[in-house]
Amino acid sequence: MKNIYTLALSISLISLSLSNAYSQNIYSHIASFGGAGNTDGKFNNPFDVTVNSAGRIIVSDFNNNRVQMLSFDGINIGFVTKFGVMGTNPNIPNNYRYPMGVHAAADGYIYSSALYDQGVVRLLTATGSTLSHSHDLGWSGISQIYDVFKSPTRLFLSYQSSHRILTYTVAGFIGTTNFYNFQPSQVMGTFNTPSTANGQFDTPKGLFVDNDNKLYVVEAGNHRLQVFTFDGVNHSYYTKFGGTGSTNTNVGFSSPDGIYVNTQNRIFVSDRANHRVVILTQSGTNMGYVGQIGTGTAGTVPGTLNNPCGVSGDSQGRIYITDLSQRVHIYSPARPTITGFTVNNSGVCVGGSATFQVSETNLGNGASYEWYFNNQRILGATSNSYTVNSASASNAGSYYVIVTDNISGGRTTSTSIQLSVNTAPVINAAATLSQCEGGPLTISTNTTPNIATTHKWYKAGVEIAGATAAGYNIASLSAANTGSYFVVQSNACGTSTSSGINVTVDNSLKPAILTQSSATQLCVGQPLTLNFTYSTGKPVTISWSKDNQIIPGASAMSYSVTQIAANQAGVYKAQISNECGTASTSNIQVTITTCTTSSIAEGEKGVLFYPNPSNGVLYFENIEPSEVKISDVVGNTVFYASSITDNKIEVNLSEGIYILIITSANGYKATRKLQITKN
Fold it and tell me: Is residue 88 within a helix (H) or strand (E), and if so which, with residue range?
């Protein structure tokens, strides 16, 4: 008879003259489940139904003294689990004596009442495929609870035999437990006295409370629906609908039972003895008939109902009905069919407008519309078209619309249309472009956006025939090509002209060698490094050769060999090239020799130095050096000392191979290889 999906009623009254023939097509039967019995999935008088936030269907199975939980995947409905057995002791959690009302509340609990359990309301928890008892709420001695409804602030119970509605406030929790502490709030109706007066009751049954705390009460004895407003303390009579009747032109009820209000503000009342569910709408204190589910004649074929009792719905707009054919029926709302969704201009210019238009069929009494931009609701956009006026870049994005049938609440979502917001060309260009004579030159610009843009190039104010590309290419620059150029670009949003671009001939862009390595002599195993520098305003490609043979992979300004071999002696050369020309280094002669050991040979008085390799400290024997000179492998002096004490020197050199020259005071000189290492 209810679920957690509620919404305040705020729509206009729909005409009462809708035909009964149409009303049968508001909702379509999609599934039924059950049948008489006491096995899983069977029922013996299923009086109430609710749907929780997880989409589980919970049914009070009256004569089987249990609550069953079902699942629905959109096509098939099936049994999940159950809770309860027949028992006379309400203090035993799973004992039921004829469960009636059941409500899946927003707090996550399922509230379940039984007709003869002396006022006990059981709180159940649904977790996956488990339906378990949480705790009880009880008021000893009170019986004949027909329905239960839990709003965020109140608990409501309908007592059919005593003709009253009792309300309780939520006064927090009991101690540290999660047990609600409910306090009596209001008694509505006169005890044991049925009445037709406003605010009084005769056999109240189904309950529903919307988000404005409006209370809806169905009365089987008075064959009507009463609505009560809430002032923060008490609920007060507001309006009513019904009376004995069965026709659409004189709408009434015959022993109505359950009630549900969906998210489209439609009121569903199970009109039990008329074998239908009546659909109503409300505007202020006025209520009107808009359709029904069921033919009005008892039956068991799809589309018919037999004494419907409970009614509820889910977040997809589907309606769930229990009846005394021992079944649960599921109905789907009629949904609009979108036949067209267009925009008159998917690429609009800044400041322009674009209008989206949707068309649809399969509507009962018209449609309502919700427009979305980048998945956000556009407030106030509620017609079948939406116009973007004075478009800016912030309006670019994805648009779609949701169309809702005004009677059934069935919703259909359109496809998405992408809107682009374009501007006139904005041109950025270099002030001057230079190239060497004979080289290629492309005059180009940075332009945004690039939408269906045309180009016209000009030189010295005269249009260049055939120059209609985004850039203008000069294959071989000559003096005749120098001058001032500009481009005119146009698209649907406007025209822009670039500033002048001056083209000049610059022969300094040809490559030239500035410095280079000289000829060098190395010992076998020493490192070789050759390099050069160059000047040019254009990128170059570099290649090295040895004896006029290209060295593979040698394409940098420096060429190195970690340990030179004897066969790597020869003539080396580097060459650089660009579109403006070619330049080469002069020949670099590399000579490789086999060097002697580090000791000074005989004939040089057995002069020794050590250690070698050295970490920077050298000792000398059999000589008093007057000067020591150290040079790198290309002959550059990197160390010199002429004041030497204790026949020792300290040098601070990088790791590598060096040439050591020792000169004594009497003119002896020795030249040897020195290796510096930091290990």
Answer: none
91-108: average pLDDT:
88
Query: Is the preceding peptide bond at 449 cis, omega within 30 degrees of 0?
Result: yes
**The pairing of beta strand 608-610 with beta strand 512-516:** unpaired
Tokens of 627: 């000067």
Residue with tokens 């950025």: 428
Domain 20-38+145-333 has CATH 3.40.50.1000: no
Contact residues for 366 (Cβ-Cβ < 8 A; gap 6+) = 406
Range with top average pLDDT, 24-28, 149-153, 249-253, 369-373: 369-373
Residue 100: count of CB within 10 angstroms of its CB: 26
**Could you tell me which of 571, 570, 575 has the C-alpha nearest to residue 557?**
575
3-state DSSP percent of the chain in helix, strand and coil, to 5: 5, 50, 45
Domain 608-676 has CATH 2.60.40.1930: yes
| Architecture (CATH level 2) of domain 429-506 | Sandwich (2.60)
The pLDDT confidence band at residue 175, using thresholds 50, 70 and 90, is very low
What DSSP designation does 23 have?
Answer: H
Q: Is residue 204 scored above 70 in pLDDT?
A: yes
pTM for this model (two decimals) = 0.59
Q: How far apart are CA 127 and CA 593, in angstroms?
A: 89
Percent above pLDDT 70 for the chain: 89
Beta-carbon neighbour count of residue 590 at 10 Å?
A: 19
DSSP category for residue 297: S
Residue partners of 495: CB distance under 8 A and separation at least 6: 424, 425, 488, 489
